[in-house]
């Protein structure tokens, strides 16, 4: 067993991706089933995401889904990757996580992002517009204040006040410096841009200020990792998501995942083909040995404390097998 890999935490973020020919409810139940399997395999955390108005994603209410996951598991940490803070009043977010932490003490994480919707129509429906970095930082500060009982309004967040729910910042762009300034753990997902990711991590570590939430920098790197018996089988796991991404870039909507064999025989325009081929690059995919070697290189480059796997594919059995094979590298 590789010592560097074995001392790194491995966690799962599942976006409840829908699949062609299957209802959204099945995707949500698949998420809960995957959480139970991730716990059995020894993964450290299991997070769910927030997306609105996306045909290919059923996970639109992350704290509700996190409650279902926590209720179906016993030990694994459960959280969000993340709640999109511009979409919600910080008081409401504090209350929701206060309820989760009260129900499942010591197991809840609070991952926070700043996306405000995939399309203009979704943003209008949410009553939100693009938010700048300073607004995001201020909302995080207000949210954390509700847990500490420092709100100047005289209102108290129940049952959040006095509880400790670890916050994480999803660090896209300026998010790394926000996380550093607030003294919070950072989640950075940019395996396709390794040099850019390393710069973001370096900037975070250099600017980090200790806080009551974290005494030192904590880096979580996230991305797609696919493990199979052969390199070709591992690559096939990537095909459905790569096609969905290509379709979204050319049609403006993110569709359910198609089977890999459908993707392999699909006629594509030159533009679609370009996005599709690009979507197949920058991930970690291969046999256990190949993935272990790539992970070792990545961990040496980033000195990250944790890896958050975000793999999605049509074949649920193959996805579970991939997580099982990956677990043999660190368990």
Characterise the protein shown here.
A nine-stranded parallel sheet has the order 3-2-1-11-8-7-6-5-4, covered by helices on one side. Strands 9-10 form a two-stranded parallel ribbon. It has one domain: Alpha-Beta Barrel (TIM Barrel), CATH 3.20.20. With 331 residues, it is of the alpha/beta class. It has helices at residues 3-6, 24-41, 62-72, 90-103, 120-126, 133-148, 175-182, 194-207, 231-251, 260-264, 270-279, 288-302, 316-330, and strands spanning 9-14, 45-48, 77-80, 83-84, 110-113, 167-170, 186-188, 219-223, 225-227, 284-286, 306-309. The radius of gyration is 19 Å and the shape is globular. Helix 2 packs across helix 3 (62-72) and helix 9 packs across helix 11.
């Amino acid at each position: 067993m590789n010592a560097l890999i074995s001392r790194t935490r491995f966690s799962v973020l599942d976006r409840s991706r829908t699949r062609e020919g299957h209802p959204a409810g099945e995707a949500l139940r698949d998420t809960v089933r995957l959480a139970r399997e991730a716990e059995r395999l020894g993964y450290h955390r299991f997070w769910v995401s927030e997306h609105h108005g996306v045909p290919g994603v059923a996970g639109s209410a992350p704290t509700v889904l996190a409650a279902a996951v926590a209720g179906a598991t016993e030990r694994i940490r459960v959280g969000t990757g993340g709640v999109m803070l511009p979409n919600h009043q910080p008081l409401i977010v504090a209350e929701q996580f206060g309820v989760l932490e009260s129900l499942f003490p010591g197991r809840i994480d609070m991952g926070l992002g700043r996306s405000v919707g995939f399309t203009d129509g979704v943003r209008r429906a949410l009553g939100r517009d693009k938010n700048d970095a300073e607004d995001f930082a201020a909302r995080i500060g207000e949210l954390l204040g509700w847990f500490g009982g420092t709100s100047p309004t005289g209102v108290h967040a129940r049952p959040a006040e006095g509880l400790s729910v670890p916050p994480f910042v999803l660090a896209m762009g300026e998010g790394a410096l926000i996380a550093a300034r607030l003294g919070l753990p950072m989640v950075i997902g940019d395996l396709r841009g390794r040099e850019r990711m390393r710069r973001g991590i370096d900037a975070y570590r250099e600017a980090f200020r200790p806080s009551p939430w974290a005494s030192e920098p904590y880096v979580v790197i996230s991305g797609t990792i696919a493990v199979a018996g052969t390199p070709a089988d591992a690559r096939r796991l990537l095909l459905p998501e790569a096609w969905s991404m290509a379709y979204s870039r050319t049609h403006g909507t993110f569709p359910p995942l198609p089977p890999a064999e459908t993707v392999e025989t699909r006629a594509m325009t030159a533009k679609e083909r370009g996005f599709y081929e690009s979507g197949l690059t920058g991930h970690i995919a291969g046999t256990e040995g190949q993935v272990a070697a790539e992970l070792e290189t990545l961990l040496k480059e980033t000195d990250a404390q944790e890896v958050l796997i975000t793999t999605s594919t049509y074949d649920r059995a193959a996805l579970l097998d991939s997580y099982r094979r990956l677990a043999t590298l660190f368990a």
